């Protein structure tokens, strides 16, 4: 597998009042295609900011981020939107489904950004819901589903456009252990069977065990890398 | 699923709130539609009447009479082809609220001048001319009141007492019905003999309320007007002569500045709606900050988000406004059956104005939330900092 992401000397600073807060300073990171990485660290260590930068929803103050052939730090906002739609699937802690759309329509949302016709979109939605085991819940609204089911719909939404990378922010943070394990197994399956590169931020050491590599972040620096079995 | 489905789903996610906004918009456009119909009727006042018809009234105002002797002098003016005269009777039927537009007219000349506007049913003209207490009425008016030719009709006047009875009830025989000849004529009125009127009133004999004259051609209208008014200058009853259209407009304006009243009512309704809907839309979109952030995260571009939010307020305005205009048109049609007011309808220019107002309402109430959604930063929206 080749390199998918190459972060070189990336710095990120925020200005808050008169104070400048440095999140990262000259951070380097290489992620290969097909990796399943868990990023751990205390609150304020920069985990979420790292995920934002990798997902193209935030920009580095300085430095470079390569994703395959694209230089994320050089893309315009509009180009970044297109890049995200084509390459990234997002999974959030609180699912972030659209409450007024049923499961099928929530999953279909990213496909509205493609040139696929209605029939193709419906086929893909059906497949994605089938993968997460919710084919029979297509017409259900988020309020009619449990947290675990909602997170599965969110996973189906993340994979329906067949992105190369999945970014997961505490995907099991709101779930009980059993449901969390089901979700994590599903992510592992997507990584192993479908070759999705997964970067997952988590506080949960149990969740991190599903990853192939764990990065420990503290004060904007990787303090430890751990390869999992 | 399409963008329209998303707009629709967002609009009806809070059904009660949306329903209340729809009701508010509906009533604002219903008020607009009905008043626009009234305004259209008002616009039409003065559009009827032949181009070569002039009206001479007392210069003080049209409620002051002219001596009947003026009629022959006006007839003698060069360029005048025919002259007639009439008096406002102030008529009503049975109840004061059942007002009838009623004129005492010099029948032969009146029918001659207005032959291009309306016609009597066959045989009625001779009967009208022959019977001193005869009256004719617009066919629709007769139908509305259940009158048939040959009926004895007692009409009341809120001005004149009949000296033969000492009462304000005047007895007439309906001898014929008036049907419109020209497209814009609306003979929803009652005519009877001026001679009968003049002989029976307790005051104001030998006078005419106003004179209507037909010129040989509209090109001589101005010259004829000047001659007539000059002829009676410095007399006890000076005259003012103008076209029939201008007279109708002036008559209508006595009732007040209807356009201004309509503008104020509609304006107030719309300013209120604008504030209610605008404020609600801003709140509704603010509640969705996180969802907008998620959509942007998925790859929805700013412009598309802007269109989705703006589409919502435009759809809201259309869903509330279009049915309201439809109901207004039906209401006006219903009112037109009872009120003899030509042009009381939602004419195409006002319909277009209504649709334009809908668009404006949708744009104004949607622009601020749409702009805020467009400018929304994903990291802020998701609270990920």
Task: Summarize the structure in short.
Helices cover about 30% and strands about 30% of the residues of chain A. Chain A contains seven helices and ten strands.
How do the strands and helices of this protein lay out in sequence?
The complex is a heterodimer of chains A (229) and B (385).
Chain A: E1 3-16, E2 19-32, E3 36-40, H1 47-54, E4 62-67, E5 70-71, H2 77-87, E6 88-91, H3 103-108, H4 118-131, H5 147-159, E7 165-169, H6 177-194, E8 197-201, H7 205-208, E9 213-218, E10 221-227
Chain B: H1 3-11, H2 15-44, E1 53-58, E2 66-67, H3 69-75, E3 80-88, E4 91-92, E5 99-100, E6 102-105, H4 107-113, E7 118-120, H5 124-130, E8 134-138, H6 139-145, E9 152-157, E10 169-180, E11 190-193, H7 194-200, E12 207-208, E13 210-215, H8 221-231, E14 239-243, H9 244-253, H10 258-287, H11 289-298, H12 302-338, H13 348-375, H14 378-382
Write down the secondary-structure element order of chain A: EEEHEEHEHHHEHEHEE
Count of helical regions of chain A: 7
How many runs of DSSP E, i.e. beta strands of chain B?
Answer: 14
- Regarding quaternary structure, what we see is heterodimer
